[in-house]
Amino acid sequence: MKTYLFIFIFLIYSICSFSQENKSVSEKIKSERDAELSKLRNEDIKSKKIIDSLQLKLKSTTGNKNRIDALENLQEETENRLKKLEVKEKTEIRLNGQLAFTELLSVQRDIKPAVLFLKSQTFFNNLGDIGNINKYSTYTSWRVEYDKWYKRKKKSSDVVNLINNSLKIVSDVSNKVPLYGSIAQTITSGLTSIISGFGRKDKALKEKTPEMISLFNIIGQFEQQKAIIDHEWELINEELKQLKEENLTLLKNQFKYYHVNYNEFVEDYMKATLDKDRDTFKENCLVNIDKKIAEFESKNNHDWLGEVETYMYKVQSIRLRFGQLTNRMLANIDSYKNLIKIYDKPSYPSEFTKKVSKLENSLNDLRTTFYDSFNPVVYIEDSATMYIGTKK
Description:
Layout: H1 2-14, H2 20-60, H3 64-106, H4 113-131, H5 137-152, H6 158-171, H7 182-194, H8 203-258, H9 262-270, H10 275-298, H11 303-343, H12 350-373, H13 376-384
Helix pairs in contact: 1-4, 1-8, 2-3, 2-10, 3-10, 3-11, 4-12, 5-8, 6-7, 7-8, 8-11, 9-10, 11-12, 11-13
């Protein structure tokens, strides 16, 4: 269960586009970007019309002096347009770079830890109870009769010893041995082979053993199919760990690039309990970014354009991959729904089906909370278009 909870707890600290905190700063940057680019685009349209007009005028102008004047006017306006296009490019990359930085900051914060943790904990506790044979009264009452029989036996065969050892293993919670595969088969096939040897004193044991064999069989089948879902969680968990490391590395690189203090981020942002305090930190970071870019420009260093754009698309890649992972998580959560549907049938042992039925409500709670917090489709679409804005 700890593996699953790690996944959901990491999610809590990783989502970045659906909280009010993110919208208040990121949307402000987007609005500024779109307004600036719209203004510059309109100016470019006007400039292009002037250039077209000057080109027509040049074609119809006669006389060397008049043609030289017309050519100079055309050249001046063309240079002005090129400068405006350069300003447009710098404005777009500067503001999208700010957006990338704020999105990257948001990957590190907490949204709904208590709610999501409790929802996942309830479900996975219920799920774990299904494979825990000690949680079944059918087993505990049968085990009392079995232990009486085992103590009365004067000789113990290899089969009985194998059954007994296997029962000890699955009964010991600290072993964490899943009740499926060879160990489940050993117990059920062993019990099947010795049931005919129970005597008159073992009437209760003989009557209860078929039900016990049936219970072991169905739990084994359930656990085997659940193991497939568990394996997918392990794969997701590994990718999340890698994504978390990449995110932190990129975050530290950006802090260094823009001369933002990482320790201040830890103290003033990560430990902040109010949205306004986190917003203040973000706003201060934006001031730092503008100062750093102004410093590059004052030194006629235009390498920042390519460097910031590279950061932008690295951030976008992380967000897209996270969106795809949340989509896989949602699909894996839905796999439990299919599992419940298969095993919630009256033909199976009643105590088993009661536990399976109990999963449904906690699973619905988990899925609803997950979907409310992380809408994978919207998240992926938002990540894919985060820099588009007025770009045409």
